[in-house]
Design a protein that fits this description.
- This protein is an alpha+beta fold and 151 residues long.
- It folds into 2 domains: 106 residues, no CATH class; 31 residues.
- The protein has 3 helices and 10 strands, in the order E-E-E-E-E-E-E-H-E-E-E-H-H.
- The strands form 3 sheets. Strands 1-7-2-3-8 form a 5-stranded mixed beta sheet, with no helix packed on it. Strands 4-5-6 form a 3-stranded antiparallel beta sheet, with no helix packed on it. A two-stranded antiparallel sheet has the order 9-10.
Length: 151
């Protein structure tokens, strides 16, 4: 069984169990007791919510973790009950390293070798804007380097 991971979001209202398919990288979580979701490749399925949450599929294809989300339990139930299907199934192109496009979701990235070497590294030491600015600066440097090579 894959290691359970946890991450934190200051604006989160609800903590739920979630799974990620290693094949298609979809993230699935339940919205109601009778909810059922299947990943894009069909390797894993989930059912239920909370204490009745379960996963069907090969454990080698599953990464389990705790997901903190801004939606309340009522929001999740209404999404399932009315068939809106906005929550519960996140595809890889719908999320980024910083979270899910304006929805408040946060996904814990797996520990890299560099972070393991630093041991006491705490990702909460800096806010997201710090990392976004750092990436923007790197991209600008990369672009300016490419422009100089063309000259």
């Amino acid at each position: 069984m894959a290691k359970r991971e946890k991450f934190y979001d200051k604006e989160a209202k609800n903590e739920i169990e979630a799974v990620e398919c290693k094949k298609c990288e979809d993230i699935l979580f339940g919205r109601a007791q009778n909810d059922e979701r299947t990943c894009s490749c069909g390797s894993i399925s989930i059912y239920g919510y909370g204490s009745s949450f379960g996963v069907i599929g090969n454990e080698d294809n599953i990464i389990r973790f705790t997901l903190l989300i801004p939606q309340s339990r009522v929001d999740l139930y209404d999404d399932w009950n009315y068939g809106a299907n906005q929550f519960g199934h996140l595809k890889p192109h719908e999320y980024t390293i910083f979270g899910i496009k304006g929805s408040g979701y946060k996904r814990h990235s797996e520990t890299t070798e560099r972070k393991r070497k630093r041991k006491n590294w705490n990702k909460n030491n800096h806010d997201i804007d710090f990392f976004k600015n750092r990436i923007i600066v790197k991209l600008k440097k990369k672009k300016s380097g490419e422009n100089q090579q063309e000259d």
